[in-house]
Design goal:
Length: 494
């Protein structure tokens, strides 16, 4: 039985471990943190649970390839319930609110009532969301391992999304928003994702929720991660937490195994780097194995930007807050890091009563951060960092109370985290929690996970395909094992 060592116990690493076990390999996962899960994580503060990751999970619709993958991984199953929410999110401006509802007809009606002068653009928007409902990420096998029939079938299945890409694939979200006359609808379009995102990504995100392929599993991120870990262990996999890989030992362009942080060495037939790719190239295997596409992304910071966030979790009295899910609204100017914003969002976790004591609700706020903000946080010493984080959280809390006066004297900060938090716990490049953004008129790279000159080392990470996220992470873990099976001249149908 050949042995696969997996560096990183996030979603990609656990996925790789599960499929390695299913394929008959011996596998071991090394995770540097005391708890596996990577960014798909939650933690407790006093009697409260804070969820870091999941707003919805792509791939929940029965009959889809991604649903099967999640079931293979133990993330979803008969005993996993979904939380039924009616809204994607809401935006507010000048005392008026508008919502993107899961019910597309209800959304269309509301948009038309708010801005009849935008009727033509609204109808077009709704029609393309309908077309995008067919959007399905291929997860049966890596695209570079597909044959002609695979591509033909994929083209047929994705015919609607192809039309969406033709219409919205060459403009960004900001461009799309300017097609609307209503300032409120413009805000609605630009609120959820960074304005630099390609507009078709926004259409596809909303369509995922509308189609029922983006439900929210009860219990949140940590519960899902734990289900996957349980599946891995039941299949005979071994996971070591609290120990990190220092280096992949390479001789004559072949990995012999990995050197661990405790100084020991573990021998392997194959190594999967299920880490942030900057960690893989910068520390584990070296930049000599980085191809030109990777070099371009890391070098061209304007063309391939990254985003992160400054987030806070609060305890609030449930009776003093009647907003469910996510709301974006204007606020007094607020500087966090190097970014000054006049707009922010809050998300209520009232749909997860187990996250808070009776009569209380967890409320989270999010301020977008860019690479300049990361560099600002990075420049601070320990005391300055703590002081600035506390100050920013207090300023945000004041603006929440300004918008929701009933929360005065019944809101309390539970925790806050910055781009450095993602760097510290997940080795995330510049504190980013998603992969490189594909901008308009810039070539989008999709990486294969293969490394030229290394026959037995593979990459598995959300960084392999924009915009990243859980589905990419999970599928890339599977793809890495399929590449090993191909190298072993075995069937790679999993």
């Amino acid at each position: 039985m050949k042995k696969i060592l997996i560096i990183g116990g996030g979603i990609s690493g656990i996925s790789a471990g599960i499929y390695a076990q299913k394929a008959g390999f011996e596998s071991v996962i090394y995770e540097k943190n005391k708890v596996a899960g990577g960014q798909c994580m939650g933690w407790n503060r006093r009697e409260y649970h804070i969820d870091n990751c999941m707003h919805w999970l792509t791939g929940t619709k029965e009959g889809t390839g991604l649903r099967k993958l999640w079931e293979d991984l133990g993330a979803l199953g008969d005993k996993v319930n979904f939380i039924k929410t009616e809204k994607f999110y809401s935006s507010e401006l000048d005392g008026k609110q508008v919502t993107l509802w899961r019910d597309l007809l209800r959304t269309e009606k509301e948009l038309l009532e708010i801005s009849p002068e935008d009727a033509e653009e609204i109808h077009e928007f709704i029609s393309y969301v309908k077309l995008a409902e067919c959007c399905e990420m291929p997860v049966e096998k890596p695209m570079d391992m597909m044959g002609i029939k695979d591509y033909i079938n994929l083209g047929k299945k994705m015919s609607g999304m192809i039309k969406v890409i033709r219409k919205y694939g060459k403009i960004n979200i900001e461009d799309m928003s300017k097609r609307f006359k209503s300032p409120l609808l413009q805000r609605l379009i630009t609120d959820y994702l960074p304005k630099e995102y390609i507009a078709s990504s926004f259409i596809a995100s909303f369509a995922t929720v509308v189609s029922g392929n983006g439900e929210l599993p009860a219990g949140g991120s940590l519960a899902m991660t734990n289900r996957m870990i349980d599946r891995y262990k039941k299949l005979g996999g071994l996971i070591h937490t609290g120990i990190s890989a220092e280096k992949v030992k390479i001789n004559d362009n072949k990995a012999d195994g990995i050197i661990l942080s405790d100084g020991t060495f573990d021998l392997a037939d194959y190594v999967i780097c299920a880490t942030d790719t900057a960690e893989a190239f910068g520390k584990l295997i070296g930049k000599s194995y980085m191809n030109k596409a990777w070099e371009t992304c890391y070098r061209s910071r304007e063309d391939y930007p990254l985003f992160s966030s400054f987030q806070m979790a609060f305890s609030i009295d449930s009776s003093a807050f009647d907003i469910d899910n996510t709301l974006f609204f204007n606020c007094e100017p607020l500087t966090v890091g190097k970014t000054t914003v006049q707009r922010m969002s809050v998300k209520s976790y009232s749909y997860e009563p187990s996250f808070a004591p009776q009569g209380k609700t967890v409320l989270q706020a999010n301020i977008m951060q860019k690479e300049d903000d990361y560099l600002y946080w990075k420049s601070l010493d320990k005391d300055q960092y703590k002081k600035q984080k506390s100050y920013a959280a207090q300023e945000v809390m004041e603006r929440i109370v300004q918008r929701f006066p009933k929360l005065n004297n019944c809101i309390e900060l539970l925790d806050s985290w910055t781009p450095l938090t993602y760097e510290h716990y997940c080795n995330s490049y510049r504190g980013a929690y998603m992969s490189f953004i594909s901008k308009k008129n810039i070539k989008a790279h999709r990486f294969t996970g293969k490394l030229k000159g290394l026959s037995n080392v593979f990459l598995a990470s959300q960084w392999m395909m924009a915009p990243g996220g859980l589905p990419v992470a999970a599928s890339e873990g599977k793809f890495a094992v399929q590449r090993i099976l191909k190298a072993e001249k075995m069937s790679y149908e999993l």
